[in-house]
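About this split. The held-out portion is used to measure sequence recovery: a designer receives only the structure tokens and must propose an amino acid at every position. Recovery is the fraction of positions where the proposal matches the reference. Here is one held-out target exactly as it appears in the evaluation file.
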């Protein structure tokens, strides 16, 4: 792992909040979940595809396994409190959406955070075993940049290094 650490130690990539819901996702017969994710990237231009990697230890992974769609949110650099909520608390014992403004796309029950810098909803096209993480291949079906056309500074890995993960090890 030392060889990979030498490479990844110089990276400072965007952090995302990924949300999922199974069933109807409103608490009546469905579960909703969300977590902070650093392992994610666009992986195809044509057709457009995005891969997001969820930890097997994470509550969001258990919901995502039976979901049809995931919502991926880019956070602004001033949204560390949102990152802390989704990165340092576990959905096993916390309703992360209780005190946040969120809505649902008409395409799927996955929660969409109203205050994100940008978001997209992706249909899960497949999964890939990555060891302690599972990759979810997403085909975009909806998305928005609520803040307008300007590109705000995003929350990066270096902004959240002090957070303690909320899911069990």
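Reference sequence for scoring:
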């Amino acid at each position: 792992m030392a060889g990979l650490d030498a490479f990844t130690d110089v990276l400072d990539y965007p952090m995302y909040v990924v949300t999922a819901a199974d069933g109807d996702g409103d608490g009546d017969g469905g579960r909703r979940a969300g977590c902070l994710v650093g392992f994610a990237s666009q992986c195809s231009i044509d057709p457009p595809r995005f891969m997001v990697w969820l930890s097997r230890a994470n509550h969001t992974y258990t919901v995502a396994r039976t979901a049809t769609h995931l919502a991926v949110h880019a956070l602004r650099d001033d949204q560390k409190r949102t990152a802390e909520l989704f990165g340092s608390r576990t959905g096993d014992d916390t309703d992360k959406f209780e005190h946040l403004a969120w809505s649902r796309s008409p395409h799927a029950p996955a929660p969409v955070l109203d205050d994100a810098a940008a978001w997209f909803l992706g249909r899960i096209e497949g999964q890939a075993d990555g060891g302690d993480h599972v990759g979810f291949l997403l085909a975009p079906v909806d998305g928005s940049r609520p803040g307008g056309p300007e590109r705000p500074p995003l929350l990066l890995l270096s902004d959240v290094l002090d957070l303690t993960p909320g899911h069990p090890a």
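Annotator remark: The chain has one domain: 2-160.
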